[in-house]
Design brief:
The protein has about 425 residues and is mainly alpha-helical. The protein is built from 17 helices and 6 strands. It has 2 domains: about 40 residues, no CATH class; about 350 residues, Citrate Synthase, domain 1 (Orthogonal Bundle), CATH 1.10.580.10. It has a 3-stranded antiparallel sheet with strand order 1-2-3, with no helix packed on it. A hairpin with a 2-residue loop joins strand 2 and strand 3. The protein binds carboxymethyl coenzyme *A (CMC).
């Protein structure tokens, strides 16, 4: 088959360039051939916020935002969410195939045996004041693991990488649970290796004086499903950070901490906490129309609505809504659900939201379930970070093994001054020349 080519006529020089197309893209480096003089730098592409730039090739997750499709390694999210356990999905996301039962047992065993935290980490957590935000504690503690495992810096050794993957996936629930207990001033609970990933997490969160914690199986499964839905989401903001920091060959602990820092922002994973704050602010169903008008008038955003890629209903939000029904059968309904449903109904009929293709995203309903499960809103983003650690690590591995990847280093369009001479301080006058933004 003939190669697909894009012909570009440069009207500045009347030269034409044939740029080969690759999987629906032009290579930005090919643009550099387009120049008006041999010593010129050549064209660059300008794409703030990566609105239309593929930064990598990836075989992990597929999203069709217009059709509302999400697949992990080719498997539809609707199927894996119902039929797999979280650790089974983690294996799939990381290694590319569903595990055999032998592989799954060995994988679960490896993760289970890396759930303990070093006692130094407990002391490290003691340094945080009582009402510290759990996400800040989570980010710092994951980063601190780097000091305990210096061998992790050998990012090109496959076996070393695998060990850090076990450790990180094993330890993030323990760190999350410790940040929660720290906030309450309760003693930390050690992991229980007899329990599943999520049941053990619940044990570390909520065990008090009972000799053995018994997690409610419906709630443990609901948490498992929520974890599956959050496992990966291709090149989102935090994954881009993971790849970018990892491209400098930083170790996986500091790279995951950096990714988690990106996740904490209210436009990304921090949105789930903000949704609950918004529902609190609205207060009751009858106040929803006024709130929507307020947003349309330019005052803030509807948190949990909109997405860079999905211009259709987020498939994860659909599954979360179904999971909510199961959870509420056990916990009783969260009164915020009525406000959320009304908000969704009104927004989906409103021209402002319809025109902009703004639909509920994964964060819209997840907080309502988390709250019914007993989590305070400040824990919500930590609950997102636990499963997303899997996606970050899968993308990190893929990046390190991709021969085309190098240290991530974008270009810029310089808009500052041309050269000018230094002015000594006694010649700068007294009037302020700058305003600190
Ligand atoms: N409420 C009201 N208006 C909105 C919203 C919203 N939630 N989201 C986007 N818009 C408007 C926006 O003002 C803009 O309008 P106009 O064209 O008149 O200027 C238009 O829709 C396009 O929005 P954008 O900001 O250019 O879109 P983006 O792709 O840059 O942003 C987003 C995507 C998710 C950051 C944004 O929709 C948002 O801030 N949503 C609320 C926060 C949120 O729920 N974040 C979680 C995202 S999903 C999970 C995750 O990634 O962690």
């Amino acid at each position: 088959m003939e190669k697909e080519v894009l012909s570009i006529l440069d009207r500045r020089t009347n030269a034409t360039y044939d740029l080969p197309l690759y999987k629906g893209t032009v290579r930005a480096m090919d643009l550099r051939r387009i120049k008006t003089a041999p010593d010129e730098f050549g064209l660059m592409s300008y794409d703030p916020a990566f609105m239309n730039t593929a930064s990598c090739q990836s075989a992990v997750t597929f999203i069709d935002g217009d059709k509302g499709i999400l697949r992990y390694r080719g498997y539809p999210i609707e199927q894996v969410a119902v039929q797999c356990s979280f650790l089974e999905v983690a294996y799939l996301v990381l290694f590319g195939e569903l595990p055999t039962s032998l592989e799954l047992n060995s994988w679960v065993d490896s993760i289970t045996h890396h759930t303990m935290l070093h006692e130094y980490i407990k002391k490290f957590l003691e340094g945080f004041r009582l009402r510290s935000h759990p996400m800040g504690m989570f980010i710092s503690t994951v980063s601190a693991l780097s000091t305990l495992y210096p061998e992790a810096r050998d990012v090109h050794d496959a076996e070393t990488r695998k060990l850090q993957i076990y450790r990180l996936i094993g330890k993030v629930p323990t760190i999350a649970a410790y940040t929660y207990r720290h906030g309450l001033g309760f003693p930390y609970v050690y992991p229980d290796n007899d329990l599943s990933y999520t049941a053990n997490f619940m044990n570390m969160l909520w065990k008090m004086v009972e000799p053995k914690y018994g997690a409610n199986p419906v709630l443990a499964r609901a948490l498992d499903i929520l974890f599956i839905l959050h496992a990966d989401h291709e090149q989102n903001c935090s994954t881009n950070v993971m790849r970018s920091v990892g491209s400098a060959q930083a170790d996986p602990y500091v790279s995951v901490a950096a990714a988690a820092a990106a996740l904490s922002g209210p436009l990304h994973g921090g949105a789930n906490e903000q949704v609950l704050n918004m529902l609190d602010e609205i207060g009751s169903k009858d106040r929803v129309p006024a709130y929507v008008e307020h947003v349309k008038a330019g005052h803030g955003k509807l948190m949990g609505f909109g997405h860079r890629v999905y211009k259709n209903y987020d498939p994860r939000a659909k599954i979360i809504k179904q999971t909510a029904d199961e959870v509420f059968k056990v916990t009783g309904t969260n009164p915020k659900l009525d406000i959320a449903l009304e908000l969704e109904r009104i927004a989906l009929e409103d021209e402002y939201f319809v025109k902009r293709k703004l639909y509920p995203n994964v964060d819209f309903y997840s907080g309502i379930i988390y709250q019914a499960l007993g989590f305070p809103p400040e824990m919500f983003t930590v609950l997102f970070a636990i499963p997303r650690t899997v996606g970050w690590l899968a993308q990190w591995q893929e990046m390190l093994q991709d021969p085309e990847q190098k240290i991530a280093r974008p270009r810029q369009i310089y808009t500052g001054y041309g050269p000018r001479d230094f002015v000594p301080i006694d010649k700068r006058g007294t009037k302020a020349t700058t305003s600190v933004a």
